[in-house]
Amino acid sequence: MGLFSRKPKSPAQTVVIPSSGGGGPAAPATTNDAREQRIFAIGSDFLARARGHKTSVLSAKFYSDALMEWSMKDPNFKVQMFRFVDAYPMLKTPDAIYDHLTDYLGQEGVTVPGVIATAIKTGAVAKSMATATIGSQIKGMASKFIAGQDAASALPGLKQLWDDGIASSVDLLGETCVSDEEADSYAAKYLDLINNLPAAMAAWKSQPRLESDHLGAIPRCNVSVKISALSARTDPIDSEGAMRDLMKRLLPILEAARDKGVFVNFDMEHHALKDFTIELFQRCVTQVNFNAGLAMQAYLRSGVDDAKRMCEWAIRNKRKVSVRLVKGAYWDAETIKSELHGWPNPVWAQKWQTDRCFEQMTEVFLDACPRKQGDSGVCLALGSHNARSIAAALAGLEARGLPQSALELQMLHGMADQLKHAAAEMGLRMREYVPVGEMIPGMAYLVRRLLENTSNESWLKAGFMDNADVGALLRSPAPKSGSQPATDLLAINPERHNLSPAPKGVGNGRPFFTEAIRDFSEGAQREKFGQAIARATVPKVANERTPEQAREMVTRASKAFAAWRDTDAVTRANMLVKAAQIMREQRDGLSGVMIREAGKTWREADADVCEAIDFLEYYARCAVPLFQRQRLGKFVGELDEVVYQPRGVAVVISPWNFPLAICCGMTVAALVTGNTVIVKPAEQTPGIASIMCDILWQAGVPKDVLQFCPAPGETTGAALVRDPRVALVAFTGSRDVGLDILHAAAPASPFSSADARSNVPTHIKKVIAELGGKNAMIIDTSADFDEAVIAVRQSAFGFQGQKCSACSRVIVVDEQGPQGPAMTMFSRRLTEAMKALTIGDPLHPGTDIAPVIDAEAATKIRGFIERAKASGLKHVGLELPTSNPFVAANASRFVAPHVFLNVPEDHELAREEIFGPVLAVMHASSFEDALRIANTPTYKLTGGVYSRKPSHIEQAKREFRVGNLYINRGCTGALVARHPFGGFGMSGVGSKAGGADYLLQFVEPRAIAENTMRRGFAPEL
Ligand SMILES: Cc1cc2nc3c(=O)[nH]c(=O)nc-3n(C[C@H](O)[C@H](O)[C@H](O)COP(=O)(O)OP(=O)(O)OC[C@H]3O[C@@H](n4cnc5c(N)ncnc54)[C@H](O)[C@@H]3O)c2cc1C
Questions:
Q1: What is the rounded distance in angstroms from the CA atom of residue 167 to the CA atom of residue 147?
Q2: C-alpha of residue 914 to centroid of ligand 1, in Å
Q3: Exposed end of the chain (fewer CB within 10 Å): N or C?
Q4: Which backbone phi and psi does 32 adopt, to 5 degrees?
Q5: What is the arithmetic mean of pLDDT over 258-269?
Q6: Is 804 an annotated catalytic residue?
Q7: pTM passes above 0.85
Q8: Distance 384 CA to ligand 1 centre (A)
């Protein structure tokens, strides 16, 4: 145990031992003194040895690389440079590289370093030279972190490492797997690795320190797997189904590993996969007796609990497994995602908390370390480059009397080579994590490494670039003295985003914030949801109100209007807030009703309920200020004011595709602005609409103010929109019905007949019409295909394509023509990704494609498919799984998703709204051409662009003329207040549901000017 008894012999000896709390180095003053002193002693020895390693300092070279140096000096340059690096592998020609480079570096606020500026300025002649230079810089950067294109090319490097006293774990780059084809290909590569690496490694010289731990021999060959690469369905919403699909490919890999004596470590990815990965790992270990390891993350707030759970499991099940303890590589992504969803952030907010959690987890694992062969428990491998974290573990090992071979150190290829050599020199078992693979799948990994290395929070940067003093580097994790606790974004979201007014007395008095969708990666939420939808029943509602009954409703609504109009606006608003609360209480049950009545899948149904709640909360807050008189100007002697008044009786005609959200949005917008309302829901979904009315009545809305009119559209609906007493019609639905309503709502011209002249109505009806779409997503040459394929698939086939916002055309830019590489690759990946969709019963969480709304709709959609096939278009369509009893029983309503390729612009698939799971892939020769094609239809609803070229993104913002444009994301899923929704052209009258001006359509403005001057005197003067 030389390591633990050796005193530091470097300049570090002179450094004062830091306190556990803070600012500058000071002697520890707590009972932990002994531990802190030991950590300091070990750490300073480790650091001194590392800093003494002047040779082979790849990491130092890394930090001196020009690109990295500039990146660290200028954050704007760093952002643009890393974005360029991310897009680089997709750029195939010097022109494209040059264009993108100048585009990124030309962004506002970026100071371009002189050398690059000169290279750029030299113009076209030097273009290829400039692109070659930058290309070799990027490849150089990549090669620091990525050891080779495949295992064979990495093998000499692995052997060199071994000879230098460092073991390896080989990782195949690639994270996003969109299809079974890709998953199979990854699985084959892993199998190849496991079958062939051991033989190559067998010839290496013996290295006892690397080949045994305190319990006995350990495998030479160590492979790391990312489970998301092995299945296109790693979605925890259907935990069992996803696990089955994964096991299909994993088990043969693990069996081969068992037979060949290869160690397999499961990497840990995003938080959404954490519980799933742990469960999968435990099942695999139970089924196959292989050398097993799992990465666990300390940046998770659940870290210590996760560690305890893992140890208890190992001991209870008499297993010996390894855990690679890491801090975690997705901190930014987790933080961003949780805020976007309004979810609690799963990761610690401050770096010291991550570091402290790492030490606490270390202690938990060391306590569970098996002492002798045959013992169960957890062997610890430490994946960190932080000498403090490592020293703390070594001190923990020592305190428990465990030998140093009981701990393995692991570090990443291309990082902290000094530390690796120091560790090896100290007799520790050191393993390097060695990624191999192509540039494109490797980009996500590379960018993570670049960000991590240049982060101000990085211990390595502090240790080896900023040369921080040893005391600071080995300080016990604790907040810096005087520092503020991190802000909990979840708690301040409403004020931080300020998405609505916050009128006094309305709800909680705070601005609106989006209702959080369910996080189905959490087992408890899944279970609760599953139980609620199993219990849900759809109320039986007959669509049998007659035109006569509807007219009686208008009479009652007219009578109720004055009192409702004059009700205090805050009282009306609070009824909406109360309704929102009732919906929250019944939330999953409401989803269940929609799943059963409309064929919504789990996420679609949940999002529908959230949107309804959002409309209630948002409109409640937006309505009140409209009814407070607003003063215009500050003229003395004249009081100028504007105020709004309700219009009268409103008829709401709602669609079946968002049977709660849209129905609720239109209804409550009319109610909260003081109009009385008659709701005529779509004939297909009266059940959920009746529940909505019940909730609003329960919340205090009088029965004559809100009336429910389930009825056929052609008769009763037509009568309602034509009734001259109706002041407003709010309609969402098809273009043709919308146009008919607009036409019917117009009063007859007084010039048309004597009758029309003598019967001029008392008012002109207002019609709010939200109609269809023929929405396109453009895939630019620099697009991230991994993301674009998934987003297009979701936008086109989510809820069976039955959304007015759905993507029905995808326009791929390929300068080399319709058979060019981008068209070919995108079409291939998209169609393969489509094959990974599961068709079935929407009550089942794994179902992606449920039946369409009714047999009539199915017949219409099938007509489009058949005509397109007959026109000779190349296509890929799924087969319906008729062996599934639900599919067989509902065959008349099922339509399998279809993608048609190279669809010409004049084809009906490129022009007509289909409202089903049918997607046209079209070719564009340039980005401009793509915009032209995208803008052609008369519908102007949603559009999407996948591009990593800043000027193209800007151009799309200017020229892609749709109501809702989405960039680098799918084109569906608008959120209230964040993405006010609605189109123009033939997509509607330009109103924006869930937007600040939506309510203005439900009211009429009145302006009042009062002369306050009396005989030359005004009070304000
Ligand atoms: C062998 C090996 C295997 C790995 N495998 C995985 C894996 O499977 N899954 C995975 O996720 N990662 C994995 N990693 C990556 C690892 O998480 C990163 O290397 C790690 O981020 C660096 O930690 P460090 O202790 O070296 O550096 P340090 O600089 O001490 O710590 C960096 C850590 O602090 C976190 N951090 C930064 N700012 C904050 C803040 N404000 N609040 C809270 N935390 C903050 C970062 O997210 C990062 O996790 C692996 C690393 C190694 C060495």
A1: 14
A2: 47
A3: C
A4: -80, 0
A5: 97
A6: yes
A7: yes
A8: 7
